[in-house]
User: Fold this.
Amino acid sequence: MNKLMVTSYSLLIISIILILYALIFSPTDWIVYGIAIVFIPIFILSLGLITMAKAKKEEEEERKEEPFIGY
Assistant:
């Protein structure tokens, strides 16, 4: 696994744990708001990064020949 996948999966797991903590244990309001503002977008971002990091079968050879350098 490359660094992007490891980071994405770790952010996904951390955000899931904290969102479940806010739902199950019902801490004070400001903690729930903080978790919602910070970790719900991180959850969505990590799902997007995991999806982007996986190469399709026809793209694998292209990525080896020409790595993505940006726009």
The mean pLDDT is 85. Residues 3-65 form one domain.
